[in-house]
Amino acid sequence: MKITLFSANQSRHNYLINLLSKNCHKLFVVQENTYFNPVHYSTSKIMENYFNNVTNAQTKLFGNSFDNKKKNVKLLSLKAGNLSKCSTEFLSDFLKSDIYIVFGSSYIKGDLLKFLIKNKAINIHMGISPYYRGTDCNFWALYDDNPHLVGATIHMLSKGLDSGPILYHALSNLKTNPFEYTMSTVKSAFYSLVERIKNESIFNIKPEPQDKKKEIRYSKKDEFTEEVVKKFLNKKIN
């Protein structure tokens, strides 16, 4: 089986690469090199504290390693945001797989999006759709006192953001540390998807259209402010 993954280069993304590579004949990875951009966030102590917690939780659950010596992995490294500039011709060697997975890439559009939709690409959305869509969904679920709506949605890729038909939701065991709790749902998404690919049950799941009437919040990046983060860090989450 051949799998193509569109992703990024943080430790959680590399963890998924390692996991998939153990469970397929050939893995093609289009990886965007992301980094913390101070333009997007304030560089205050509050934001620094928040992102240190995120980094520590990610390192604890996923480590830092990527085994780039795997012979069955072919990797194309791109600058963050450059995926939209790549034509399907340029990516042709990466577009001959049986399964296409998207997790953590920049916004996909144009001919590549059309190709992926036609070939039933699967997107891993960190958030429980249709209740939470947009950015930082699990953060907002905890902020809204909805810890039961922290998790991942495995759905079909579509033109709309996080709006494709749902295959299933992935959750994790509860944890007292909110940062480890949200990261643990990422790991649950990975293992559940790999297991369904291995036993081929993923092909037998009937996608269910999303009911937009159930939407609680459609979050945008500019809503993630220092004031909001300060309130979050001071919250007692049940």
Q: Biggest sheet, open or closed, and with what strands and sense?
A: 7 strands, mixed
Helicity, as a percent range? 25-40%
> How many H/I helices?
6
Order of helices and strands: EHEHEEHEEHEEHEH
Structural class: alpha/beta
Radius of gyration, taken over Cα atoms and rounded to an integer in Å: 17 Å
Strand neighbour order, sheet with most strands: 3-2-1-4-5-7-8
Could you give the count of β-strands? 9
Low-confidence parts:
none
CA(first)-CA(last) distance: 43 Å
Sheet-strand content, in percent, reads 15-25%
Approximate shape: globular
Mean pLDDT: 92
How would you summarize the topology of this molecule?
Blueprint: E1 2-8, H1 11-21, E2 26-33, H2 45-62, E3 73-79, E4 99-102, H3 110-118, E5 122-125, E6 132-134, H4 137-143, E7 152-156, E8 166-170, H5 178-198, E9 217-219, H6 226-234
Task: Write structural notes for this entry.
The protein is an alpha/beta fold and 238 residues long. It has helices at 11-21, 45-62, 110-118, 137-143, 178-198, 226-234, and strands at residues 2-8, 26-33, 73-79, 99-102, 122-125, 132-134, 152-156, 166-170, 217-219. It has a seven-stranded mixed β-sheet with strand order 3-2-1-4-5-7-8. Strands 6-9 form a two-stranded parallel ribbon. Helix 1 runs parallel beside helix 2 (45-62), helix 1 packs parallel to helix 5 and helix 2 (45-62) runs parallel beside helix 5. The protein is globular. The protein starts with a strand and ends with a helix. The mean pLDDT is 92.
